[in-house]
Amino acid sequence: MEPTPLRDIVREVVSIPTAPYLERGVREYIRSFAEARGLAHEEDAFGNAYVTYRRGRRRRPLVLGAHMDHPALVVTGVQGDRLDLEFRGGIDASYGNGEPLVLY
Prior knowledge:
Shape: elongated
Mean pLDDT: 82
Oligomer: single chain
Distance between the termini: 34 Å
Number of strands: 4
Low-confidence stretches: none
Largest sheet: 2 strands, antiparallel
Helix content: 10-25%
């Protein structure tokens, strides 16, 4: 299999819709990524994904960690410079009430 540039992998991962407690799409990507490359992978009872890569001599383990989610919201209304939002996942609706928000 031809190596995939890291920026392409990151672009694919961050384009997957996700929210707290709704990380299934990212977990499926990780599983598929590992299987396509013959890498050992597993998931624990909390939904954390682990991929193991072994090659050559034994070396000290390296662990990379990242969140598979991000705060998710849907803009349900716009009134001038005011947005009405519906939060998804594990964010309480009162979080950030009246605070400025930047959308990208």
